Amino acid sequence: MNGNWYIAAFAVVCSALSVMFDAILFFLAFIIWLFILFKKKRLGKFPITLSLVVYLTFLLYIPPIDSLKPDTDRSDVTFSGKIIRYPVKTETMLQFDFKDDDTKDTMRVMLFNLDRQNPTIATIQSGASCQIHGDLNILESSSNPGQFDYQAYLASNGIHYEIVINSIEDISCHGSDRLNVLYTMRENIKEYIYSKFSEETGAWILALVLGDDSLISKDITELFQRWSLSHLLAISGLHIGLVVGLLYFFTVKLQLLTIEKAQYLMMIFLPIYAFLAGGAPSVLRASSMVLLVLFLRKVKRKLMITDVISIVFIMLIIFDKYIIYHIGFQFSFLVTFAIILSKKWLLSSDSLLFQMLKLSFISQLVILPIQMNYFYNFNPLSILLNVFVVPYFTFFVIPLMFLLLLISPISFLHVFMDKLFSFVHEIFLRLLQGVDTNLFYPWWNGQFPTSYIVIYYTLLIFMLAMILRDKLTRAFAYGTLLTMLLVSLMLRPYLSPYGSVTMLDIGQGDAIVIELPFRKGVFIVDAGAAISFESMEATNRNYTRVIKPFLQYQGIYEINAIIISHEDTDHAGSVKYIVDDYRVNTIMISEYYQLEEELIHKQTQGEILRVKAGQVVEIKGKMFNILAPGVDKKGSNENSLVFSISLGGRDWLFTGDIDKETEKEIIKTFPDLSVDVLKVAHHGSSTSTYPMFISAIKPNYALISVGKNNRYGHPTRDVLETLHKEQALVLRTDQAGAIIYRYSENDGTFYQFKP
Question: Any idea where the Metallo-beta-lactamase domain is (predicted)?
């Protein structure tokens, strides 16, 4: 297998993809690839047979992340088992992973409102045997397209259950394991950094030396994410190379140790540092590769670098079968493998600038489909920005972080260097924020379909192969096809004859997104926000967790109109956040809507359109027939904007939170009103959905946006009985998650996001 370990690694990749996507496509691609290699006499029967065995073995070994879900919640249950990872303790929260002795299941234990002074906290350590009394909860899966799936995230770490405890007294622990010594050492180093350095510098030392970026501000982490710079906030192979270089300098160059003894020291120290650095996949990869190379030298064996990375890849998955789902693992191995294969091309230029540009180009292209699947966007300018930012971190920031830690006992020196770093880094961050403000033009695309992924990587491999062979004309041709593939991905919504109406599940509130066929227009009807129980003010939780991810998932970057039914937070609270992030051409409200000064100030790029009953408003070829309010009723619910619109061959009625009196007035003023789909008013409250109103409009479908187990008892039994009596099919977000109507010109179909 010397020189052919990449075949086995590729077999594992195909197994993982087959499990992740539940698709035979990757197996067929693998078989075709093996057949081509066999026909070209580049592989014999034994490596091919072994590769097939590896594929089948890992197909059974790698778990699908939707397995082992609990059936029901259970309250007041006592569990016995061990803590398997070091607990995370903040000022207000305790979190750790726990393995139950009876079921052998791994559970995430959560305690909020933590009392840090309680002596019981000191007994909660890695490897401790514990009894825990709490509630076993079913992990909530995402209920909207594009929403972060917490259930899938924990399942990808082998965790399928969550225990919520009410008090620290509900935990009784004793003992610990040997790893707890290293965990304690890590915590002591963190405390030392807190005490020695300024808050800003300490945060960057923690991130770049110990792999803990929790103290770096959310704005900075989001900024780095937008520009595909997140890899710089995580410990990577660069850090391991720096650690190895420092060890080599302080031992061999200063003649403290022989080369052989220095290598033994590295073999001891690297696993310890990898653990102290948080055990990120990129650290494990780089450390394992160095250790494997050192071991091979000791036994006088030599392997190609592609064999080394392939063996490490397989070993790490054997050690942790869930690591394949970790985005850092995927990025680290993809980028490293691509750099190894492109080494000749990268070094073909004498210019360091061109080498960095090539490196950035390769790194960005090879992870692009995965990045789009996770973040739904790609910023082409990030390739160029990486050329300048990566050297800044490589030659200044990262080495300085290690140096600051080493010189920290020398007070005057580390204080001076701390101030120097803070000054320089502040300038860098301001420049980066300026670039972000003026040059951030991402491609929003939604998900990268599986078929596109296969075609993309096939074209990329052929393009790089032609570059390495100096066949630049062919490389350009493959690059052109690759570009056309990406452009077609961006253009899909504009070429699709299908539109959609999506009632998002934001809990007790309304948020509905209408997309016209061929992306001729995008409308949002209401965008509710959740209320903070502490401040009793609107928060951005619904926007950041549901609305914005959905818009990104759909590749939406411009909104033609937001129609706000009334002022209540559960209908209008997220509008200000949308206006901040997106171009909104029109905000449509009733004549009696009390518009906030903040929203007037924000809506400078588009118009604010006030309407009243009897008007017909045309936006992007769609007619909005305004049915209410006709007069000021001195109440926000009663003054809700009501309109009808035709979508996909059906007549829709959007009703906000109107009451029964308004419903009576509507059917009196518009006796011929025909409705196929009704957005049920006021989340199914008994104040609305008057039986005579439903009997008059005779809807075939009734959509109710309502929070699960809400305290209001919505939708009420009377409302449901009224709708059922008129034989309307009721669809509820608390049961179905997002409700999606996908339509063509004259017809459409309803879908529920939750099965």
Answer: 508-708
- Cα angle for residues 236, 280, 403 (degrees, 5° grid): 50
- Give the whole-angstrom CA distance, residue 367 versus residue 236: 16
pLDDT tens profile 18-27: 888 877 778 8
Core vs surface per residue 526-544: b (16+ CB within 10 A) or e:
bbbbbbeeeeeebbbbbbe
Residue 271 one-letter amino acid = P
HEC string of 206-231? HHHHCCCCCCCCHHHHHHHHHCCCHH
pLDDT tens-digit series, residues 548-572: 999 999 989 899 999 999 999 999 9
- The token duo for 714 is 């919505």
Q: Cβ distance 30 to 70 under 8 Å?
A: no
Please give the model's pTM, rounded to 2 decimal places: 0.87
Tokens 């030298």 belong to which residue? 297
399 preceded by a cis bond (ω within 30 of 0) = no
Rounded Cα–Cα distance for residues 61 and 168 (Å): 37
CB 726 within 8 Å of CB 739? no
Q: What angle do CA 430, 555, 29 make, to 5 degrees?
A: 110
Of 558, 493, 548, give the one whose Cα is nearest residue 522.
558
Counts for the chain of helices (H) and strands (E), in that order = 28, 26
